């Protein structure tokens, strides 16, 4: 089955370019276009996209607001944000609004289609430059995590906290299992459980959450094994 994509951008020429790139892939089809967030919100239930390619800065309802509304409505469509803006608040805002991926518009066509496939497959994706800025922002204090225990961590068991901590450190399920002395299948169970309890969609949002709550702090040594 083809990956169904909705292209959302306030510039017609940009929409046309993205549509041409995506439409040229044998496993993808553009099922609709929208010029702003309001149009996107109306189009999603009609077009039933798997992935919404979403610009951030648009007149009227912007991409962040539209992403929040889609997430709040429980839409199964996954949002991949593309923007020319490099400012950190757009990255954090997009991820917290429910976006599953973030790319800059100067990416190569192959990077774009690979990103669509990744997000459609249920994974999260950040452009390498975005990931570096995200880490740097926490490391330099541009984003200040809380100093004490955050109430949002209360639903998690200690083992789920252990797993979340290692997700935020960038470990794979196999590496987490080795560190904690448990099987990969058990790690997957813990990951799914903690994502469900916290209302998070993927590992990127889990990483943001871990830093936001102070579970992980910049400059910490890697968590000990066991």
TrEMBL record:
Positions of the Response regulatory domain: 4-120
GO MF assignments: DNA binding
One Pfam family per UniProt: Response_reg
Any one GO biological process: regulation of DNA-templated transcription
Iron-sulfur listed as a keyword: no
InterPro entries, alphabetized: CheY-like_superfamily, NreC/VraR/RcsB-like_REC, Sig_transdc_resp-reg_C-effctor, Sig_transdc_resp-reg_receiver, Tscrpt_reg_LuxR_C, WalR-like
Taxonomic superkingdom: Bacteria
Annotated positions of the 4-aspartylphosphate modification: 55
Domain HTH luxR-type: 149-214
Sorted UniProt keywords: DNA-binding, Phosphoprotein, Transcription, Transcription regulation
Stated name of the protein: Response regulator transcription factor
């Amino acid at each position: 089955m083809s990956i169904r994509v909705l292209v959302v951008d306030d510039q017609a020429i940009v929409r046309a370019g993205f549509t041409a790139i995506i439409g040229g892939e044998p496993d993808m089809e553009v099922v609709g276009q929208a010029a702003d967030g309001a149009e996107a919100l109306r189009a999603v239930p009609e077009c039933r996209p798997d992935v919404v390619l979403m610009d951030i800065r648009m007149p009227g309802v912007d991409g962040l607001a539209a992403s929040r509304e889609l997430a709040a409505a429980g839409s199964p469509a996954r949002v991949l944000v593309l923007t020319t803006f490099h400012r950190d608040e757009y990255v954090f805002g997009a991820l917290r609004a429910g976006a599953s991926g973030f790319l800059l518009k100067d990416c190569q066509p192959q990077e774009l289609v690979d990103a669509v496939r990744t997000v459609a497959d249920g994974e999260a994706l950040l452009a390498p430059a975005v990931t570096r800025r995200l880490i740097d922002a926490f490391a330099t204090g541009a984003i200040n995590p809380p100093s004490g225990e955050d109430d949002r961590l209360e639903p998690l068991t200690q083992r789920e906290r252990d797993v979340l901590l290692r997700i935020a450190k960038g470990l794979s399920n196999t590496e987490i299992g080795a560190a904690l002395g448990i099987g990969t299948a058990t790690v997957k169970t813990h990951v799914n459980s903690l994502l469900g309890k916290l209302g998070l969609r993927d590992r990127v949002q889990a990483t943001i959450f871990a830093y936001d709550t102070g579970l992980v702090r910049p400059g910490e040594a890697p968590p000990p094994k066991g």
